[in-house]
């Protein structure tokens, strides 16, 4: 089985227990304005442009003159079809390597082979491989095959998911993971839909079932200023998590580290200028969760 992979990150310490390799898959049903991996949202390859590397030589425009506006120094990456040979020629024509393509089809066997190169680190640290994205459940057959291959080599597996998937798909994939990291953004379905484009119905039902059959489930909530950073928001989420069978949540303070990626894709960043949050900013939320019977930590 193949999937569109845009990154394989080694030696990660924040995506499950121990030292892990994180396999990032393209495609996501949500469009969160704070997304730190905007290149993960579409299931197809995308052209990226590096402002710091570009010398303005215009060689990419010679390959794709129809993708440049008058006076442009480089092709318009937002209009480029990264799967076309012309655009790939433009990438190859850039002497500064300012153009690159995010995403390529890889087989489960190929990805497994890459991951197994670090097996010694998994065994020594209690780590393994985490499937992330985007939303890895948009590639269920690939995830199942890759996890089966990894388990055949005694490698621990983890999935980082929004849980926004059909129940059958969620169950078939999630049951094969040793750990589940469920990204939960808000306790109110209308506010969740307004921000992400998706409501909570499937997310909550999948999360409830996950706590019934999965061995290790951790809900993680990105704390976003003006969206879910109030004590009332924390209390609502805490009550819903408790009803779902959860007893803990990890809070992820908002950061703007992915802002430069939007420019590389020819997109604007809706949260430009928003200050980052830090652990000390979440003290009141942690206390609110505690009062609702949920252990919250950063």
TrEMBL record:
Upper lineage: Bacteria, Bacillati, Actinomycetota, Coriobacteriia, Coriobacteriales
GO molecular function: 4 iron, 4 sulfur cluster binding; [formate-C-acetyltransferase]-activating enzyme activity; metal ion binding
Similarity comment: Belongs to the organic radical-activating enzymes family.
Stretches assigned to the 4Fe-4S ferredoxin-type domain: 45-65
Cofactor: [4Fe-4S] cluster
Every Radical SAM core domain range: 14-295
Keywords in alphabetical order: 4Fe-4S, Iron, Iron-sulfur, Metal-binding, Oxidoreductase, S-adenosyl-L-methionine
Residue runs in coiled coils: none
Superkingdom field: Bacteria
Name of the protein this chain belongs to: Glycyl-radical enzyme activating protein family
Transmembrane segments: none
EC numbers on record: 1.97.1.4
Reaction(s) catalysed (UniProt annotation): glycyl-[protein] + reduced [flavodoxin] + S-adenosyl-L-methionine = glycin-2-yl radical-[protein] + semiquinone [flavodoxin] + 5'-deoxyadenosine + L-methionine + H(+)
PANTHER family the UniProt entry points to: PYRUVATE FORMATE-LYASE 2-ACTIVATING ENZYME, PYRUVATE FORMATE-LYASE-ACTIVATING ENZYME
Keyword Iron-sulfur: yes
């Amino acid at each position: 089985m193949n999937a569109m992979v845009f990154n394989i990150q080694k030696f990660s310490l924040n995506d499950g227990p121990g030292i892990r390799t994180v396999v990032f898959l393209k495609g996501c049903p949500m469009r969160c304005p704070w997304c730190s991996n905007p290149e993960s949202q579409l299931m197809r390859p995308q052209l990226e442009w590096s402002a710091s590397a570009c010398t303005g030589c215009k060689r990419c425009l010679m390959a794709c003159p129809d993708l440049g506006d008058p006076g442009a120094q480089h092709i318009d990456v937002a209009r480029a079809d990264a799967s076309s040979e012309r655009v790939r020629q433009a990438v190859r024509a850039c002497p500064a390597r300012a153009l690159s393509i995010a995403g390529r089809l890889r087989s489960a066997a190929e990805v497994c082979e890459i991951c197994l190169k670090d097996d010694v680190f998994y065994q020594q640290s209690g780590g393994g491989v985490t499937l992330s994205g985007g939303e890895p459940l948009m590639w269920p057959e690939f995830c199942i095959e890759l996890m089966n291959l990894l388990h055949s080599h005694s490698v621990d597996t983890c999935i980082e998911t929004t849980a926004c998937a059909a129940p059958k798909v969620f169950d078939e994939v999630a049951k094969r993971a040793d750990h589940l990291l469920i990204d939960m953004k808000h306790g109110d379905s209308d506010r969740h839909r307004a921000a992400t484009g998706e409501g909570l119905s499937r997310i909550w039902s999948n999360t409830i079932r996950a706590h019934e059959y999965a061995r290790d489930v951790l809900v993680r909530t990105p704390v976003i200023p003006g969206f879910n950073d109030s004590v009332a928001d924390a209390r609502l989420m805490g009550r819903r998590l408790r009803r779902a069978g959860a007893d803990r949540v990890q809070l992820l303070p908002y950061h703007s580290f992915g802002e430069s990626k939007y420019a590389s894709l020819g997109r604007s960043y809706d949260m430009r200028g928003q200050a980052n949050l830090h652990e000390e900013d979440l003290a009141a939320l942690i206390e609110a969760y505690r009062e609702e019977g949920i252990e919250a930590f950063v």
